[in-house]
Amino acid sequence: MTPATPARSAMTAALIALAALPLATAQASPTRASPAVVPAPDALRSDPLGGPAAVAGRQVISGSMFYPRIPRALWRDRLKKARAMGLNTIETYAFWNVHEPRPGHFDFSGQNDIAEFVREAAEEGLMVVVRPGPYACAEWDWGGLPSWLNRDPKMQVRTLYPGFMKATQRYLDALARQLAPLQATRGGPIIGVQVENEYGSYGEDHAYMRAMKDAFVRAGFAPRLLFTADGPDLLARGALPDLPVALNFAPGSAKGAVEALAKFRPGAPVYVGEYWDGWFDHWGERHETRDGTAMAEELRTLLASGASVNLYMFTGGTSFGWMAGANSAGANADHTNRKEVNYQPDVTSYDYDSPLSEAGRPTPKFFAFRDAIQSVTGETLPALPPESPTIALPPMALGEGARDAIQSVTGETLPALPPESPTIALPPMALGEGASLWSDLPKPVRSSAPLTMEDIGQSFGYILYRTTIAKGSERPATLTLPVVHDYAAVYVDGVLQGVIDRRLQQTSLTLAPLRAGARLSILVENSGRVNYGPALPDERAGIIGTPLLDGVKLLNWENFALPMSVPPAAPVQSASPAAKPPCTGPCFSRAQFTLSKVGDTFLDTGALGKGVAWVNGHNVGRFWQVGPQRTLYLPAPFLKTGRNEIVVFDLTGGEGRHVEGLRDSILDAEPAPDPVTSRLHLQGKITP
Q1: What pLDDT, on a 0 to 100 scale, did the predictor assign at position 577?
Q2: Which residues are catalytic?
Q3: Gap between the Cα atoms of 187 and 511, Å rounded
Q4: What pTM did the predictor assign?
Q5: Which residues form the signal peptide (predicted)?
Q6: Which of the listed residues 550, 565, 580 is the one where a domain comes to its end?
Q7: Within this chain, do residues 152 and 254 fall inside the same structural domain, yes or no?
Q8: Is residue 493 one of the residues assigned to a domain?
Q9: What is the pLDDT of residues 351-393, one digit of tens each?
């Protein structure tokens, strides 16, 4: 609790208030903020390094929400709920790889219309903080960096390498053309623009950071709005002396974080750029949750001290399509550095255990955070409909000094929560016979050694490598792939031999005796490029290096690009199913269903293996039976009344495949080993 203190500067009040917090509260994190009615203390307005609060002239109570992870038709719903929780600001990344999918070709339309997202936020009474990168992290493929950068074999991302800086400037120029008119310096809602992202966690090149700041200014971002963000112990590595800094930290760390800031930059106001109120999930690991009770109290104390806070996340949304990233080099959810953990691909859901769920439903954290925010801002809560659930927190007294610092305004009323949209169930649907991946391959690119996806101009999906075995062997042979990114299914004459899985640090596989002229096929899935840590520069997808068979190089490869950006137009379905056996191995299949009304639903993939699903042409993400995610969020805007279609690509196709739509998500299934990998490992066919 914050002790009563005499009125003083906002910074002093913040330090005294946070000194009363325990060093570690139980994995708690705060949540969203209050409306634009709370003026900031004079110190925040006058300090030239005051950050977004100084620009706005009021305390910033913010939450993260990323427009590419929310269907555009639902932006307004999520923004209304942010305001209803008491937030006055929304923070969003801009992902470079979304906006410049090919060099020089920009897309700011439809789902990618960031300017419209900012305008809609402003219409709901919310200010906006934008984080353009160029590197974003965010559990997004390669941290938002476009894969085509790595077509340059000398590329060095996040450095002064001319090829990187030139491409970055082009991106920032294009983004600024969308956002510059919406900056607060021109009367718009954008009160902050972050330069780079947690650079202190990656490097310590201050010349690079100065050049990056200059690139933002050249593009048209106002110097007054710029700031950097880092962990409390890394400020000296990533900050610039003439820009405000934001602190990113976990629940329970507020006291140490504020003390670190006071030591690094005495007198600077507190701006928490990321307060982690949840965490993300990896395939094959347990679902992550964080208790919100202690978080709500820490949030209340931070806000009462005069600090500005951004909750990461307010609502996480979904990494639709191929956009989920991965961790590497021990960047684990428990913040340890286990040497054996090499690669952790992220699941499709970015629910994040946040105040607003993946499907936009308020969670207990929402109401606990709202009450904590309201207790500081003095805004009153709207009357709730009789059927709406609510919880109450006991009255919490504010220290006198904190109250003076914030200048709470009473009498304003928060907007009511929008009514919840209905969820629907879809009955179990058998997937049609479909077609084998092998039946309709594109024209290959020939090369001596395998090419990466980047080499052939591909960003996402799968890539198939084929070669012919010149010399047979009567004994089992060992196939070695020097580096595989990320999951390689190996076939000889169409028969699966096993899997080489980057997660398990596997590089080799024992094959059955080979005949001369046998066709070796290696189908590689890009499971998500690493988005954080020292592995970042080396994230090319596919096979890197030349495969070996019993120590001898395998040459003369065909490379088939399989980006699967859209589902095949018409997977083959036999007119007489008895005429041929069902498709096995990597297969496309489909099902159709009819709706009289639409609503959110959750596609249960528990009967499937590993692959990706499309509904009415929308890629709703990857699935994998290793868990913990078992359902894919299927939002109402992706559905239509009348006939709808699901297309599934499953690496382990076969009989009995079906899907259904559930009214609730399953994100916490018990993790399991990959059945293909584990079965063959037990048979001695996979060498760890």
Answers
A1: 47
A2: 198, 274
A3: 66
A4: 0.88
A5: 1-19
A6: 565
A7: yes
A8: yes
A9: 999 999 999 999 999 999 999 999 999 988 776 444 444 444 4
